[in-house]
Write a structure and sequence with these properties.
Largest sheet: 5 strands, mixed
CATH class of the largest domain: Mainly Beta
CATH superfamily of the largest domain: Immunoglobulins
Structural class: mainly beta
Distance between the termini: 34 Å
Low-confidence stretches: 1-12, 14-19
Number of strands: 35
CATH topology of the largest domain: Immunoglobulin-like
Length: 453
């Protein structure tokens, strides 16, 4: 049955290469944003015009996107029909792709050939679909106002946000329209033990069974009205802006500090230069002092250039990858075992061998050995293999394997003897020819913990 499906699949591919359906299609996205952690579908509307004879069609894809409905639909000659489809990307695509993902879909009728075109889906992590704006809290505040922005063209229904900070813990459930901004309020607890400065607000997002966290800022003002701000950008060259602003109505003395370790300080420049520095163990604290009039601000810019250490890191990674590539085998052979229940109560195991080619190869021979206390169930060998009763060997001959190709081989062994403890299985071996060289590889060790089966 599997061979029949494979032949049918190959036949469809060959037909699509020969000719294409004469259809006119207009595509309209209804909802094309998908959250990566949620198993959901994008929705598209297709207006399909059939200039040819009346026929039945179906829509499908070969690239890891399931398209529903999968049933056929009929379009008359010269008729235009609107079809709404759901495109559900696989878990692998949701894990490995981000932002816009372009995939091919096909339409096939009863005649040879297919219509091919592309649709795109936007894959967004749950933590990046909403934004929590920075919050400002003064000592006299009794509630905090939290502003939430929906950053995508997607309706977020039954969204649950759990806020956790030094100022409040609060949970609220609501929905957000595409690109909607909503402001909610949360009661503030006791502020007496908190010092002015910048704090974190950790927001847990729950949506359709998925969870994620985002971190935003809370600025707690000093009594005199000093607003602290810190912003860092960049990866290799990190630029950090520090500021203290007097938003009160009286002159205020301020101290701005920043701590660096003794390694990163070697690659850091300051503007303006600090008034003083203090070293404490592995860290150095830089200090700026000033008296700010109302409306004045002290701003400090720091730039840390990691270009040189980053190049050293890239060199080390490249060396590791080079060594790994050179030591990798062209064929990976993995062996695993599974207990099989039998009607007669005999001890039985299903042995599976999985072979994956990392390069094109030919004349592949995979050999496994039957343990001495067991017998092989010759009707349970897949695919067909040569069995040598004298040497107790099983041999599969494969003419060739392409790069990236995987094959699975299995057989069942059994024993009428009771087995206790750890049952060790022999290592499987494979020989093959790659790049005009004869090579060999062995599988992993495999055992089964028997309980007197």
């Amino acid at each position: 049955m599997k061979k029949m499906f494979a032949l049918a699949f190959l036949f469809l591919i060959l037909l699509s290469l020969v000719s294409a359906l004469n259809l006119t299609i207009s595509e309209y996205p209804i909802e094309d944003v998908i959250i990566k952690e949620v198993d959901e579908s994008a929705i598209f509307e297709l207006n399909i015009t059939n200039p040819g004879p009346k026929d039945s069609f179906r829509i499908f894809s070969f690239v890891g996107v399931e398209i529903r409905p999968s049933e056929k639909f009929e379009i008359g000659s010269g008729e235009t029909k609107t079809v709404t489809i759901q495109a559900q990307p696989s878990e692998e695509i949701r894990e490995n792709f981000k932002n816009w993902f372009l995939f091919e879909y096909r339409i096939a009728g009863s005649e040879p050939g297919t219509y091919k075109d592309n649709l795109k889906i936007k894959l967004i992590p749950l933590a990046e679909i909403i934004e929590i704006e920075p919050i400002i809290i003064s000592p006299s505040s009794d509630e905090a106002f939290i502003t939430i922005n929906n950053l995508e063209d997607k309706y977020l229904e039954d969204l649950i946000l759990k806020f956790n900070s030094d100022f409040f813990e609060y949970t609220e459930a609501f929905s957000l329209k595409p690109f909607e901004t909503k402001t909610i309020s949360a009661p503030i607890g006791d502020l007496e033990s908190l010092e002015a400065g910048e704090y974190q607000l950790i927001t847990e997002i729950q949506y359709k069974g998925a969870k994620s966290e985002i971190i935003s800022e809370i600025n707690y003002l000093e009594e005199s009205g000093i607003l602290d701000a810190k912003d860092s950008k960049g990866f290799i060259v990190v630029t950090t802006h520090l500021s203290k602003e007097n938003i009160g109505n009286v002159e205020s003395p301020i101290i701005l500090t920043e701590r660096k370790n003794i390694i990163s300080r070697l690659f850091t420049t300051f503007s303006p230069l600090p008034d003083e520095s203090e070293r404490n163990g592995f860290f150095v604290t830089y200090i700026w002092r000033d008296n700010l009039q109302p409306g004045e601000a002290l701003e400090v810019t720091m730039r840390t250039n990691y270009t040189f250490p980053f190049l050293l890191l890239l060199l080390a990674i490249g060396l590791i990858l080079f060594v790994r590539i050179k030591t990798q085998t062209d064929l990976v052979l993995k062996k695993r075992v599974q207990f099989v229940r039998t009607k007669g109560g005999e001890f039985a195991l299903r042995v599976r061998l999985k072979a994956k080619a990392r390069n094109n190869m030919e004349d592949v021979k995979i050999t496994d050995h039957i343990p001495g206390t067991t017998q092989i169930h010759e009707k349970m060998i897949y695919p067909h293999a040569e069995v040598d009763e004298k040497t107790r060997r099983i041999l599969w001959n494969i003419k060739s394997m392409r790069k990236g190709e995987e094959r699975t081989f299995s057989y069942v062994i059994y024993s009428k003897m009771k087995i206790f403890g750890s049952f060790e299985l022999p290592i499987a071996h494979a020989s093959y020819k790659s790049d005009n060289q004869q090579k060999h590889v062995s599988s992993n060790k495999t055992s089964f913990a028997a309980e007197g089966a």
